[in-house]
């Protein structure tokens, strides 16, 4: 299986997700590898995850809780810059407004690499193919190419906010259909940080005693699929050259 070499000159990365905790389930081990190597990582979360918890829980209270949990989780993997866009949880669409708002963050952060969810359906794991995930991935891809680099896209970003165009050189997609995944990251040494980040989402993971065991099994399987040695853990992605 082909495993491309990721760029060695990456100084900054942006992770764009739909909900708090998405990055921690899908890629927090990889983020911890990046930050340990000196890469400056920022998060952009499209919603605040308010459509979760008990049906009688106040949505605004849940949003505040989940934002705080995501900031705490980010700190466990070396991330301090977390932006919430405030779109409604459960109703995300890849609209021009969302593309503009992600483009704004890209032009502010000026990342070499963007990691987001795949806009495609992974039929082997329906539980992870939330419509918000796919809509966020589609909008983030459009923000990477062509919006962020095009001075004519969302002209108010340049004319009113002074945000110059920026070209993202590399796009990483998580939860792509398995046949499209072409790169694995060894997260064995950062798995404890990933678990700490996930436990910070107490409103979502509290009481799940089997979480660590199940994730270890899953990421050990990923490592084996990419030819890594027994006992190692890996997260897998579809890496696309967008330069």
Name some characteristics of this structure.
single chain; 243 residues; alpha/beta; seven-stranded mixed beta sheet; 18% strand
Any overview of this molecule?
The chain has a 7-stranded mixed β-sheet with strand order 3-2-1-4-5-7-6, with helices on both faces. With 243 residues, the protein is an alpha/beta fold. Helices cover 38% and strands 18% of the residues. It has 9 helices and 7 strands, in the order βααβαβαβααββαααβ. The radius of gyration is 17 Å and the shape is globular. Helix 3 (59-76) packs antiparallel against helix 7 (191-199) and helix 4 crosses helix 5.
Give the % helix.
Answer: 25-40%
Order of helices and strands: EHHEHEHEHHEEHHHE
Structural class call reads alpha/beta
Distance between the termini: 23 Å
Q: Rg from C-alpha positions?
A: 17 Å
Helices, by number, come to: 9
- Residue-averaged pLDDT, rounded? 94
Q: What proportion of the residues form beta strands (DSSP E)?
A: 15-25%
Shape: globular
Largest sheet: 7 strands, mixed
Query: What is the count of β-strands?
Result: 7
Uncertain regions spanning at least 5 consecutive residues: 1-5
For the largest sheet, list the strands in their spatial order.
3-2-1-4-5-7-6
């Amino acid at each position: 299986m082909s495993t491309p070499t990721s760029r060695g000159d990456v100084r900054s990365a942006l992770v764009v997700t739909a909900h708090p905790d998405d990055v921690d389930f899908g890629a927090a081990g990889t983020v911890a590898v990046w930050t340990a190597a000196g890469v400056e990582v920022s998060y952009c979360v499209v919603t605040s995850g308010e459509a979760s918890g008990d049906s009688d829980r106040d949505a605004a209270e849940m949003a505040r809780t989940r934002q705080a949990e995501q900031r705490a989780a980010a700190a466990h993997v070396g991330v301090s810059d977390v932006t919430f866009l405030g779109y409604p949880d459960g109703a995300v669409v890849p609209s021009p407004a969302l593309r503009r708002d992600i483009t704004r963050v890209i032009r502010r952060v000026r990342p070499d690499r963007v990691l987001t969810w795949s806009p495609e359906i992974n039929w082997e794991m329906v539980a992870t193919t939330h419509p918000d995930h796919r809509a966020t991935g589609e909008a983030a891809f459009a923000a990477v190419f062509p919006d962020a680099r095009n001075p004519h896209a969302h002209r108010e970003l340049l004319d009113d906010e002074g945000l110059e165009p920026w070209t993202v050189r590399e796009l990483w997609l998580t939860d792509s259909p398995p046949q499209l995944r072409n790169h694995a990251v060894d997260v064995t040494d950062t798995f404890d940080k990933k678990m700490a980040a996930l436990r910070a989402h107490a409103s979502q993971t509290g009481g799940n005693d089997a979480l660590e065991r199940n994730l270890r099994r899953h990421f050990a399987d990923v490592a084996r699929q990419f030819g890594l040695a027994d006992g190692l853990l890996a997260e897998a992605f579809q890496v696309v050259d967008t330069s």
